[in-house]
Amino acid sequence: MLAQKYIDMLSRKSVIRELSEYAVARGKEIGYENVFDYTLGNPSVPVPQSYNDSIVRLISEKSGMDLHGYSQSLGIREVRTAVAESLNRRFDMNYKADHIFMTSGAAGAIAHAVRLVTVPGDEIITFAPYFPEYGPYVTHSGTELRIVPPNTEDFQINFEAFEEMISAKTMAVLINTPNNPSGIVYSTATVKRLADILRRKSEEFGHIIYLISDEPYREIVFDGVDAPYVAKYYDATITCYSFSKSLSVPGDRIGYVAINPACPDADMMIVMCGQISRGIGHNCPSAIIQWAVSENLDITADISVYEKNMNILYDALTDLGFEVVRPGGTFYIFPKALEDDAVAFCNKGKAYDFIGVPADSFGCHGYFRLAYCIETEKVERSLEALKKFVRSEY
Fold first, then answer.
1. What is this structure's pTM?
2. pLDDT tens, 193-222?
3. Could you confirm whether domain 4-47+302-393 is CATH 3.90.1150.10?
4. How far is residue 82 from each of residues 147, 199, 263, 296, measured CA to CA in Å?
5. Topology of 67-294 in CATH?
6. Quick one: average pLDDT of 51-65?
7. What is the separation, in whole angstroms, between the first and last Cα of the chain?
């Protein structure tokens, strides 16, 4: 018999993917350059040349087994050492290779982190607005995901609601900063306050409450924004990272788990990740990609285009009367729709070939997300469609 839970999921497909498929189909009718598709967070800037150069050189210099064979179950030791040293240089930490586990992107990292610190029946708390895939990431481990309602004033944490929700069943808190979908970066004050609560509640409940920090947009932070490295403020932090956005390589599926060395049993937790892999079919990311990222850890693609696109859209949206909190990073902007029903709002936008994503599945009704990781020229051309849409319908 087929597994019913996955059959049930077929009727709850990602609204992001559905709208993206609509945009592609519409593009076949009128030319995709005429569809202003803000659905997918698919990095648009070119991969750094040094990354491509690394792959070419690695192919010519290393053996086939080094590049195409199985790597060690925790990831290539030299790569893990390089990741640790990069984090130490940049954030004044003291990681070693034994605190790093290589994964297939941030999704793989979160899948391991959740299973590290929970058993079926436990709870993990996250904060709206949140990435919808956190649902299956967490619940398919047998853990319940609980959602703290959003603080729509500035999209920092709604601490009052959080303290009401946290309980003895809470084994971890999952945060995402810089945040998808809001583009907001949690401030140092926010992270410190969260850490204080977690320390107090861990003592009260008699067990560690872990902080799982999902950071695929860590490098995409705009000028002058306060963007703390979360693990510096809480010992029991499990950092989940992906190179997809910083290096524009989402298809290469590469990231890592980093356990704060100050976390109790940090060394054992990384070894446990290798055993978790046996149960979820992870089996290590590509060896050649591990080697390539290890040579490009302190660089990024030209992510300055994202701030430029954000400024264009922010100015246009506010001029048209939208309520929107200015993003501090990522390549998302998160305006309030011009009617209570964001689904209806976004459906009306389709008639003008302006495609945004309603935020109901992000846990924030009445808002919509625009992923502006597209060419600046297209962002600029989209403004006329946006203006026509708003002035005609509202």
1. 0.96
2. 999 999 999 999 999 999 999 999 999 999
3. yes
4. 36, 31, 21, 10
5. Aspartate Aminotransferase; domain 2 (3.40.640)
6. 93
7. 50
